[in-house]
Design brief:
Distance between the termini: 32 Å
Oligomer: single chain
CATH topology: Neuraminidase
Number of strands: 22
Strand order of the largest sheet: 1-7-6-5-4
Number of domains: 1
Radius of gyration: 19 Å
Protein name: Phytase-like domain-containing protein
Number of helices: 3
Strand content: 35-45%
InterPro entries: Phytase-like_dom, UCP031900
Largest sheet: 5 strands, antiparallel
Pfam family, one: Phytase-like
Structural class: mainly beta
Organism: Rubrimonas cliftonensis
CATH architecture: 6 Propeller
Order of helices and strands: HHHEEEEEEEEEEEEEEEEEEEEEE
CATH class: Mainly Beta
Keywords: Signal
């Protein structure tokens, strides 16, 4: 998600950082629309009915710092990324273990704004996408199963549907997922669309735009697709950032393996907004990452909810984790299963190219 207004948000984040230790009140839960599925199917995200005072609108993110111009290239090229260990604890979380926490930095001016992430099925590697369209891949070092670092990073600009490499900053990529055949699919907003990338994401060839339901055209430019998840059967699930009103559920657009689209409903509990989603390897559970920003409550809050896909189309999510306060903007989510059978969540934070924010990489195990 991109927004403008460097000065306003810089001041906001400075204040948020100063009061981040203050406890944030639990968000109030609003009543859902009586017909959740109908509301989800007919409510474009960001519609006028959505409350004007919603926190993310009160403090728009900044424009990025100046970047060096460069010719786009589809070939993967080495990039220096440092992974600095971070002492991070999921306070109050039951049944969760922190198996890794790092701050990622790079001198490469293109690095930052990470909005989507895909972890390899065995947890040995990762691919990120930024909201400037940059792909970054790396190996994950592990020690006794825990995440120990990130090495051998490479970056590339994927090709567009015409086969030409996309320039850095040309596309607002918001989510990334891996299809059952190994190909990567990326979701964009402004306009909302989904591309299937060729080969390893940056191989020679053309990206293919996946057919979209008419509802995508109704999504606002900065409230479009934020989450994309692929099931092991090839079904795709796409969720916009907003639902159209605080009492309306988020529409979950499902593309069946046959190519047919349908829509389900994910109940919304204001004020959280969707930032990403992922499906565990067996395809039974949809995990959804959500975020809120409220300066007076300590900055960003975020949570993870899980929904049983057997309840489709009326999903009934449960909250797995809630973290209140701070300046870190959690944007990307991926899920894998470790050798012991535990589900692990890999979460990345978008620094918005702001010095007061960080690119965090967190890994949590669900016991």
């Amino acid at each position: 998600m991109r927004r403008a207004g460097l000065g306003a948000l810089s001041l906001a984040f400075a204040a948020a950082a100063a009061i981040a230790a203050a406890p944030a009140p639990a968000p109030a839960r609003t009543a859902e629309a009586p017909d959740l599925l109908a509301a989800a199917a007919t409510s474009p995200a960001g519609a006028p009915g959505e409350a004007a005072g919603l926190a993310p609108q009160a403090a728009p993110p900044p424009a990025p710092r100046p970047r060096r111009a460069g010719a786009p290239a589809t070939a993967w090229a080495a990039i220096e990324v440092e992974a600095r260990p971070l002492a991070w604890a999921a306070r109050g979380a039951v049944g969760l273990r922190v198996t890794g926490a790092f701050v990622l930095t790079s001198d490469d001016p293109r690095f930052g704004g990470l909005s989507g992430v895909v972890v390899e099925p065995d947890g040995s590697g990762v691919v990120f996408v930024s909201d400037r369209g940059l792909l970054v891949k790396a190996r994950l070092n592990r020690r006794d199963g825990a995440l120990a670092g990130l090495v051998a990073a490479e970056a590339a600009q994927p090709p567009g549907p015409d086969g030409a490499p996309r320039p850095w900053g040309a596309d607002d990529a918001e989510a990334l997922t891996r299809l059952p055949d190994g190909a990567l699919a990326v979701a964009f907003e402004g306009p909302s669309r989904i591309w299937r990338l060729p080969g390893d994401g940056a191989a020679a060839g053309r990206s293919v735009e996946i057919d979209a339901p008419p509802a995508f055209a109704a999504l606002q430019r900065n409230s479009g697709l934020e989450a994309l998840a692929a099931g092991p059967d090839g079904a795709l699930y796409a969720i916009p950032e907003r639902s159209g009103a605080l009492e309306r559920p988020f529409p979950v657009h499902r593309r069946a393996p046959s190519g047919a689209w349908s829509v389900g409903a994910l109940p919304r509990a204001a004020p959280f907004l969707v930032t990403d989603a992922a499906i565990e390897p067996e395809g039974r559970t949809l995990y959804v990452l959500e975020r809120d920003f409220a300066l007076l409550s300590g900055g960003f809050s975020w949570r993870v909810r899980a929904a049983d896909l057997s309840d489709w189309p009326m999903l009934a999510p449960r909250t797995v984790l809630t973290v209140n306060g701070g300046v870190d903007n959690m944007e990307g989510l991926s899920v894998w299963r470790d050798a012991g059978g535990a589900t692990r969540l890999l979460i990345v934070a978008d620094d918005n190219f702001q010095p007061l924010q960080r690119t965090l990489l967190l890994e949590l195990a669900l016991d």
